[in-house]
Design a protein that fits this description.
By secondary structure, this protein is α/β, with parallel strands linked by helices. Helix content is about 35%, strand content about 25%. Helix 2 links the parallel strand 2 (about 25-30) and strand 3. It starts with 8 loop residues before the first strand and ends with a helix.
Length: about 110
């Protein structure tokens, strides 16, 4: 029986954040927390994107409670917040639980 491969969702933290956002592929980062209801609503979308954009973009999650330095550095004050980086630079910001097409649209813009 073959094992179903789960797409690579990158667990980001204060230590590995900068190295993960540098590179020529877009990087989508979901800033979230375990207690956040809207974060739980978009979590399945973020997981789907990891599969749909595999090889084209990196999709990661960062727990704001455990990684406050990065959250403060990028001014994340409410969650969920999604930041999209390319070449190590912030390209776009999405705040709140938004529909998947809105996230896909912004990620596709970063791929262009």
């Amino acid at each position: 029986m073959s094992e179903i491969k789960k797409p690579a969702l990158v667990e980001l933290n204060d230590k590995n954040f900068e190295e993960n956002i540098s590179g020529n592929k877009p990087v989508l980062v979901d800033f979230w927390a375990t207690w956040c209801g809207p974060c739980k609503m978009i979590a399945p979308i973020v997981e789907e994107l990891a599969g749909e954009f595999e090889g084209k973009a990196k999709i990661g999650k960062l727990d704001v409670d455990e990684n406050q330095q990065t959250s403060i550095k990028y001014g994340v004050r409410s969650i969920p917040t999604i930041l999209i980086f390319k070449d190590g630079k912030l390209k776009d910001t999405i705040i709140g639980a938004v529909p998947k097409p809105q996230i896909v649209s912004k990620l596709n813009a970063a791929l262009a």
